[in-house]
Amino acid sequence: MTSGVETVVAGFTLPAGSVPALIAARAAEHTDRTFVTFEGESVSYAQLHERSGNVAAALQSRGIRPGDRVAMLMTNSLEFLYVFFGIARAGAVSVPVNASSVGEGLHYTLEHSGAVGIVVDAELVANLDRIDPLPELAWRVVTPAAELLVPGTPADVEIGLLDPMSIIYTSGTTGPPKGVVLSHTSYLNTGRYFVKHYGLDSSDVLHTCLPLFHCNAQQCTVMPALVCGGRVALNGKFSLSRFWGWIDESGATVTNLLGSMLTLMEKRPTDEVEQRNRLRFMAAAPVPEALHRKLEERFGLQIVEGYGLTETGTMACKNPVSDTRSGTIGVAIDHDEVKIVDPQGLECPPGVTGEILARTRIPGAFMTEYFRDPEKTAEAMRGGWFHTGDAGYRREDGYHVFVDRMKDTIRRRGENISSFLVEKAITAHPDIQEAAAVAVPSELSEDDVKILVVLKPGATLEPAEVVEWARGRLAEHEVPRYVEFREDFPRTETGRIQKYALRGEGVGAAWDREKEVAR
């Protein structure tokens, strides 16, 4: 399955070479210890090894060879893990597909990846049936998939550190999705670094309700648990009403969340279940600065903000646990470098916003390439640095601050405006649950600012009150011109707001403060 020398990281022995080798080692070491719980069912390390081996054997019987791509159109489940690790054990490459994918987007991912087969949840088969046929997609297995779990011993295959383990397709909001190729090293390295950074051990329970088809849950929950011999507490899609019950039932000590989830949690009344949580850490990004210390005190834990992308193996910057600083994404993690550059590629001095660039000293820790796209790979990695497309700056103390996705930056009257900072100011209002700032066309050229607002249940607010709240908290050129109230936003499967869809709506029927002033 693998060859190489074992390494010891943060007190844990890691077999060199592959993720399946790590699973085999943990199964031998912690045979009956629970590895994962999901919806009342527990699976041990030995069972994970056995069932992923059954999947690998079943795939090999279908002709799967090392390097073949196998797609997964699945939501969170135990079977997801068996299939994900079974594909890896067969030496093949998994292509986890966003479970909300339909139509052209789904067709593009399956066609571009060259997947030769797919494992699909029964409730998602209709989406697969609606797309045009794909000649390369020779077979499908529908879950629950008993035929994949028939006892069988897979043939040994040689798997190297730099061999691809998965292809994760990015959101593709500005063009076709890009397939990010991640090696076994990327998974092993992120898992071991997460353990080291948080000081985890085998008593820790790592919780996630983020989708397993995304890199965060795979690399920052599942892999650290494998590294330290801990337990994964897996749930389905984030639920504000059920979250603290999940944490209580599982005894979770660490959870990974999105910053937008913290905003929703702050609005929720405190109750007994929340107060008896055993969490030590919440890893989240971006963390609303005004809520950081407030929520730490309320929940009785530490919130640690960081920054990374699928391309950087999920992490590039992180706040040290010993010295977290609100409003920052921290400093480059031990084996990475981060810098901020201007449009000419020159490094920016402290306090000056530019593009965030990152590189790693560990071969394979970052993406290997964009699959079947050498031009975009070369463009993203020019000069030996990964160009994130995100804007940020470095403070005098060496900590970095995320400003905005560069594509989400609004340019008004010659000034660049961070949609992220506008949203922070607006959501500080006690009656506002969530907000999204987007650029809309201005009759004076460039952009105007539109703010879309979801109110807290039972709250009422006038558009002019939103603008008045923004004044004094934002520079005049940052104060929204347009205000629109919404029940909710279009979202990705992970709950992120799809800003490209909101930009596409234009001004629409939004309230216009300039027209009000002119009356």
How are the SSEs ordered, and which strands pair?
Blueprint: E1 7-9, E2 12-14, H1 19-29, E3 34-38, E4 41-44, H2 45-61, E5 69-73, H3 78-89, E6 93-96, H4 103-113, E7 117-121, H5 125-129, E8 139-143, E9 164-169, E10 179-183, H6 184-198, E11 205-208, H7 215-228, E12 231-234, H8 243-250, E13 254-258, H9 259-267, H10 272-275, E14 281-285, H11 289-299, E15 302-307, E16 317-318, E17 331-332, E18 336-341, E19 354-360, E20 369-370, H12 374-380, E21 386-394, E22 400-405, E23 410-412, E24 415-417, H13 419-427, E25 432-441, E26 447-455, H14 463-470, E27 482-485, H15 499-504, E28 511-512, H16 513-518
Describe the fold and architecture.
There is one protein chain. This protein is an alpha/beta fold. It folds into 3 domains: 23-182, Rossmann fold (3-Layer(aba) Sandwich); 238-405, Rossmann fold (3-Layer(aba) Sandwich), CATH 3.40.50.12780; 409-518, ANL, C-terminal domain (GMP Synthetase, Chain A, domain 3, 2-Layer Sandwich), CATH 3.30.300. Helix content is 29%, strand content 26%. The protein is built from 16 helices and 28 strands. It has a 9-stranded mixed beta sheet with strand order 4-3-12-11-13-14-15-16-17, sandwiched between helices. It has a 4-stranded parallel beta sheet with strand order 6-5-7-8, with helices on one face. Strands 18-19-21-22 form a 4-stranded antiparallel beta sheet. β3 (34-38) and β4 form a beta hairpin. α1 packs across α2, α2 (45-61) packs across α3 and α6 crosses α7. The longest helix has 17 residues, at 45-61.
